Amino acid sequence: MTSFAPVASRPYAWPFTGSWSTEDTALFLIDFQNEIAAETRAEDTIAALAPLLSAWRATGGLVLHGRRGFDPTVGLPRVAALRNAARPVDRILPRGTDGWQIVETLAPQDGEPVIDHAGDNAFIGTDLDFLLKRQGIANLIIAGLRTEGAVHATMRSANDLGLECLLLEDGTVTDLPGAKDSILNITRFGYALFGTTAPIAAIKL
Amino acid sequence: MTLSWPVSGSLDLDRTALVVIDMQTDFCGPGGWIDRLGQSFDNTRKPIGPIADLLAAARAAGMTIIHTREGHRPDLTDLNPVKRWRSRVHGVGIGDESNQGRALTRGDPGHDIIPELYPETGEIVIDKPGKSSFHATEFDQVLRARGIEALIVCGVTSDCCVQSTIRDGADLGYDCVLVVDGTAAVESANHQGMVDVLSAYGGRWGAVMPSSSLVAMIEGAGQ
């Protein structure tokens, strides 16, 4: 086990317990999939995360990958399907399509759990909570696409479950104007309603 | 393309619930938790009028009405350590003595719903320990038991529990509408940011409508 010093994050040094380690903390990369990455022009975000992912893997810490998409033989819930079809962008794709694949730079390696989720909240209808509990994970460092979509929905749910979350400010992006700032502010409001935020460089392994 | 609400095309009062989130003294009353934190509760009282209008219409139409309350068991066994720690550093810890009993603690005065919007007999009250009404509650079972497919969501705060409930509701397949004047946040900027996000692409997780339109729809469907 490797322990680390608290991360310089806002509004407080993370995690609240004062220390974290590869045993109790996971890196969660949410929905870095081809189509979402293209729509949000996430090249810089992806490039900035690559060194962190390598360093994280070198510590032996848990890496999880979110992958949004629906089973084409099942489809989405009726209302969700109608809303999905009405959107010009940020559409949930059928599993197996090119746009649904995780980008090469951040592709999962053997042994890294991939969480296939049909909606935005990666805890709904998945084994994510179960996996985290089984592995004794208390803290999540989160990056992903889009900031106001799956990232925020999942972080809200993680927070309700008692996980101590840190969102990487330059590890998330969106194409919806103004949304990223709003979400970062809401996340930190009221002494971290949903968690803290920090730049990738603040994670020192 | 912007979808109408409900997406089924017409409002079915038997399959629609009015959900009033966390209109508790702790969030929008004098001496409550927000007040004790030194923050203004002017904003969180603004939705009282629109919510009262919706409650009156829903009661007259015989709709399912659900009130939620955020708070914790008196022994705090359902309070996450991080949530308690943040609230204490922030100023008033959840479960600690406040002006209206213990903050956000079930059974104490601050935790209860404000008199203006108090539940009537036959209305359902869901006590929830988290932000999402679906987290660690029987909310989903209640909706299924009643055959509910659409949710009219109002209450406080828009950036917190209202948004979490709409997001999870959408993922679970409910047809949600946010009552834009029936919700508010402590900070106006966060409220506006949340309304902008939820309104994007014609309603990313559901529709966004004013209370007057919804009252008219309920009254129209009940005739």
TrEMBL record, chain A:
What does the UniProt keyword field contain? Hydrolase
**InterPro entries the record matches:** Isochorismatase-like_dom, Isochorismatase-like_hydrls, Isochorismatase-like_sf
Q: Which SUPFAM superfamilies match?
A: Isochorismatase-like hydrolases (SSF52499)
Task: Please list the residue ranges annotated as the Isochorismatase-like domain.
Answer: 25-174
Q: One Pfam annotation, family name?
A: Isochorismatase
Coiled-coil regions listed: none
Write down the CDD domains for this protein, in alphabetical order.
cysteine_hydrolases
**Matches recorded under PANTHER family:** FAMILY HYDROLASE, PUTATIVE (AFU_ORTHOLOGUE AFUA_2G08700)-RELATED, PEROXYUREIDOACRYLATE/UREIDOACRYLATE AMIDOHYDROLASE-RELATED
Name of the protein described by the UniProt record:
Nicotinamidase-related amidase
Q: Which organism is it from?
A: Kaistia dalseonensis
UniProtKB/TrEMBL annotation, chain B:
What Pfam families does its record include?
Isochorismatase (PF00857)
Task: Output the InterPro entries linked to this UniProt entry.
Answer: Isochorismatase-like_dom (IPR000868), Isochorismatase-like_hydrls (IPR050272), Isochorismatase-like_sf (IPR036380)
Transcription regulation: present as a keyword of the record? no
Carries keyword Chaperone?
no
The UniProt keyword set, sorted, is: Hydrolase
Q: Isochorismatase-like domain spans which residues?
A: 16-203
**What is this protein's name?**
Nicotinamidase-related amidase
Which species does the entry assign this protein to?
Answer: Kaistia dalseonensis
